[in-house]
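agent> fetching stored inputs for the pyridoxal-5'-phosphate docking request
agent> found them:
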Amino acid sequence: MKDRKLLMIPGPIEFSPSVLAAMSLPTTSHVAPDFIETFGRALDGLCDVFLAKKSMPFVVAGSGTLAMDMAAANVVEPGDGALVINTGYFSDRFAAILRRYGATVTEVKAPSLGDAPSIEAVRSAIESSKCKLITITHVDTSTGVRAPVADYANAARKQGALVVVDGVCSIGGEELRQDEWGIDIALTASQKAIGVPPGLALLAASERALEKHKSRKTPVQNYYCDWAEWRPIMEAYRARKPGYFGTPPVNLVGSLAVSIGEILNEGMDKRVQRHRHLSNAFKAGISALGLKQLPQHRDLQAATLTAAYYPGGSENGLLKEILSEGVIVAGGLHPEIKTKYFRIGHMGAVTRSDILATLGAIERSLIRTGHKATPGSASAAAEKVFAGS
Ligand SMILES: *Cc1c(COP(=O)(O)O)cnc(C)c1O
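agent> prediction call returned; pasting tokens
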């Protein structure tokens, strides 16, 4: 496998062989009995992954941005106040989507890049903005910052605001407890920690969110996203009956059912622990190479990816060297510092060997591009973390 590359970006990721095999099965009718069972199982399983027994799951063809769009389209009416807790690029995107549907958006921003707003700042912004809804980016993929979702959600619930969580880079890799934390809409996409090729928008809506949709005074301003159309379909498949509004991506749904089976088989707590452990090892290796990470404190570091500044302030051919070592990593995304840092995704089916291979590739590439590093120092630091388990 001379030409094999290891895909270590924050989505799409490396997928398990059985998930990929499911993609290549012959496409059946979307109302075939086998498919009805598969889709029903995927929807039931999604609630277990989101720890959202009481929520209504939605699985539609689209990317994570469509899931964000669906959330906003259904619960926002023109003039509604919305508060965006802004931790980076994808929070900016949520603000833009909310504005498109007529919300009056207030933002509470992190004091600086790589940080997250304090609970006090969020609480006071919720009180003064009198918002009906808040959005939280659980892990902002542009900074690698993980926000304290449970605390923010708690503050919002005290004011009676709906809580929407963009969990695209977190769900399936970070702890997220939708019911317990009082999250009204949690959403993600297939290609990140859920471990399925790109193409599915995944969302779960609480009773309160569905109520807000039902009691709208104005129609949903997006035909494709309207829960009024999709809810009966999801309910039908969960009752193991056929339904049709738009043709589901049959192969992707089959793949989703397999991946969710694997996730639940591992167990949510164990899976979160594994991600944290692999991330700790990877980050120890990155620190041993003298690279500084974007998140300002350890508590803010996501377990699903690592964002680190280039040494010397610029890329200097590093990514190409890493690629020549057989590993694909991602460049920067946050517009303010796009050329100054890079990102490595480590989620889903990622293993210890992948972590070590990636650290080795980065270390050798740094040395080749003129940086000082002791060969083996990154993997030694990672191995120390592994040995401690
Ligand atoms: C990737 C990502 C998105 C966008 O998902 P797409 O599938 O690219 O549309 C949104 N939010 C976060 C946090 C992400 O990581």
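agent> quick read of the result: The radius of gyration is 21 Å.
agent> awaiting further instructions
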